[in-house]
């Protein structure tokens, strides 16, 4: 597993690519929130062009899982989070989030940033 990560890191050293954390709690328990700096660095890869950072937080059979990866955004999707009833074509539910800054999918707060934006907008409007 670590060899694999190393190879990914070496292969992915390229200029100007977005960097994202790539891990899954299925095979890396440290992928669960909150991730520490060491684990974030160790699991960071450079994405292909047009890919954004994706974080999926979902519950399956009563267990919490987190997947972080580089992913191309579907054309009817946008940066931010959406609530998904089916995740990874299995029955489950959770947040599916895309963000476009380096290692932004390492943050526990990725799932609430959309809500915070709404709140900020509401507060601004209320003034
Ligand atoms: C980060 O977490 C991993 C396990 O998840 C642990 O082995 C490591 O010691 C931690 N590092 C720091 C700096 O806390």
From TrEMBL:
Q: What is its main location?
A: membrane
Q: What are the record keywords, sorted?
A: Biological rhythms, Cell membrane, Disulfide bond, Glycoprotein, Membrane, Signal
InterPro entries to which the protein is assigned, alphabetical: QVR-like, Sleep_regulator, Snake_toxin-like_sf
Instruction: Look up the signal peptide feature and give its range.
Output: 1-17
Name its species.
Amphibalanus amphitrite
Name by which UniProt lists this protein: UPAR/Ly6 domain-containing protein qvr
Q: Which family does it belong to?
A: Belongs to the quiver family.
Which proteins does it associate with, and in what oligomeric form? Answer: Interacts (via loop 2 of the three-fingered Ly-6 domain) with Sh/shaker; this interaction may stabilize both components of the complex and may be required for targeting or retention of Sh/shaker to neural cell projections. Interacts (via loop 2 of the three-fingered Ly-6 domain) with nAChRalpha3 and potentially other nicotinic acetylcholine receptors; this interaction is required for antagonism of nicotinic acetylcholine receptors.
PANTHER family recorded = ATILLA, ISOFORM B-RELATED-RELATED, PROTEIN QUIVER
Membrane association type: Lipid-anchor; GPI-anchor
């Amino acid at each position: 597993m670590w060899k694999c990560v190393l190879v990914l890191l070496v292969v992915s050293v390229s200029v100007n690519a977005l960097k994202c954390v790539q891990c899954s709690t299925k095979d890396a328990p440290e992928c669960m929130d909150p991730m520490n700096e060491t684990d974030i660095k160790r699991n960071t890869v450079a994405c292909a062009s047009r890919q954004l950072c994706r974080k999926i937080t979902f519950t399956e059979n009563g267990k919490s899982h987190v997947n972080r990866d580089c992913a191309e955004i579907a054309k009817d999707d946008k940066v931010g989070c959406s609530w998904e009833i089916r995740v990874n074509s299995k029955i489950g539910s959770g947040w599916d989030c895309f963000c476009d800054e380096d290692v932004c999918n390492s943050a526990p707060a990725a799932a609430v940033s959309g809500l915070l934006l709404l709140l900020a907008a509401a507060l601004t409007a209320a003034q």
